[in-house]
Amino acid sequence: MYIAMNRFKVLPGAEDEFETLWLNRDSKLTAVPGFVEFHMLKGPEGEGYRLYSSHTIWESEAAFLAWTRSEAFRAAHGSAGGTRPLYQGHPNFEGFEVIQTINKDV
């Protein structure tokens, strides 16, 4: 399993617009081989920003990398940056190979 995260430092006053953009986007993820789950996380306020993080779970790093090279990826990210600046700089990417998972018994 592989987890891909992007951290966004959203500018003060842009939180609602940022959230609306994510909540209303046409995600292509559910049709992508190897995709498991997506979360958009709202974090704490920092100095001059609100932290958000996208958190995507993949079957493998290879599945994630294939997604980043796909037409679906280009379509999903084609309008990025098309609005006024909502966050400081570029998103900060972090990728993680899962080495342990603990689940609650269902």
UniProtKB/TrEMBL annotation:
Record flagged with keyword Endoplasmic reticulum: no
Gene3D superfamilies from the UniProt entry: 3.30.70.100
Domain ABM residue range list: 2-96
Domain of life: Bacteria
Family annotation (PROSITE patterns): ABM
Annotated keywords: Monooxygenase, Oxidoreductase
Pfam family, one: ABM
InterPro entries to which the protein is assigned, alphabetical: ABM_dom, Dimeric_a/b-barrel, Heme-degrading_MO
GO molecular function: monooxygenase activity
Record bears the keyword Oxidoreductase: yes
PANTHER family: SIGNAL TRANSDUCTION PROTEIN TRAP
Protein name as it appears in the record: Antibiotic biosynthesis monooxygenase
